[in-house]
């Protein structure tokens, strides 16, 4: 089967990362979590307490280690768990809206996909990062279901959360992501929509796997 790139976009907590990892495993492809990259820069922004994003990105040494899962190394430190905490989650949409941040990361993400055989998820993968991806998926789910998923994920990570707060936060992030000036969250014209509300992880993974097989022939 030929090598392809798979782009999976969608709003916060739609299940993109979970599904993307499983699809990548099915085909022995490389999984790239672009959201983690934005979270790493958000963490640095919080630590530096600076709005000078042009300066911040120049100070960042960001490495994605693709070995038995993805680890995020920020200036020599593994921040893979730290970037999932609430303070980062609350600010990541704001940081991701900055032009210098997006320019910096899009370039890195495109380099990771140069040789194809990558599954990449995010907000603007099919529209901006990998506009020529052979398969584009746009995943959605109800706010209620996404909030429940985020709550369960946080519980597994030992992060305290409140369901009602998560609902409000997800709606806020949707509005921010969809209405930002630079690379807003939109469905690519050639993307296939999948509403994951009420579907199991296995059901969604199987749908995308079958679509990918058709592209690999």
Automatic annotation (TrEMBL):
Its main location: cytoplasm. SUPFAM superfamilies: P-loop containing nucleoside triphosphate hydrolases. It catalyses: dCMP + ATP = dCDP + ADP; CMP + ATP = CDP + ADP. ATP binds at residues 10-18. It is an enzyme of class 2 (transferase). Its EC number is 2.7.4.25. It is found in: Cytoplasm. The keyword Transferase applies. InterPro entries: Cytidylate_kin, Cytidylate_kinase_dom, P-loop_NTPase. Residues 6-213 form the Cytidylate kinase domain. Keywords: ATP-binding, Cytoplasm, Kinase, Nucleotide-binding, Transferase. One of its GO terms (molecular function) is kinase activity. HAMAP family: Cytidyl_kinase_type1. NCBIfam families: cmk. Belongs to the cytidylate kinase family. Type 1 subfamily. This is Cytidylate kinase. The lineage of its organism: Bacteria, Bacillati, Bacillota, Bacilli, Bacillales.
């Amino acid at each position: 089967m030929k090598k392809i790139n798979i782009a999976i976009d969608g709003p916060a907590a739609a299940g993109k990362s979970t599904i993307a990892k499983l699809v990548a495993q099915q085909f022995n492809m490389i999984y790239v979590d672009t959201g983690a990259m934005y979270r790493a820069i958000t963490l640095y922004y919080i630590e530096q307490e600076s709005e000078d994003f042009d300066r911040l990105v120049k100070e960042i040494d960001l490495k994605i280690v693709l070995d038995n899962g993805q680890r995020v190394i920020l200036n020599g430190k593994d921040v893979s768990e730290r970037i999932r905490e609430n303070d980062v989650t609350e600010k990541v949409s704001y940081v991701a809206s900055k032009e210098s941040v997006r320019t910096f990361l899009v370039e890195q993400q495109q380099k990771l996909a140069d040789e194809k055989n990558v599954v990449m998820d995010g907000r603007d993968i099919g529209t901006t990062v990998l506009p020529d991806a052979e398969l584009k998926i746009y995943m959605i789910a109800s706010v209620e279901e996404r909030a429940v998923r985020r709550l369960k994920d946080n519980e597994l990570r030992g992060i305290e959360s409140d369901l009602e707060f998560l609902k409000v936060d997800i709606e806020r992030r949707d509005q921010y992501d969809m209405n930002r000036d630079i690379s807003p969250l939109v469905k690519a014209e050639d993307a296939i929509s999948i509403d994951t509300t009420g579907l199991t992880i296995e059901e969604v993974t199987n749908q995308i796997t079958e679509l990918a097989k058709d592209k690999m022939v």
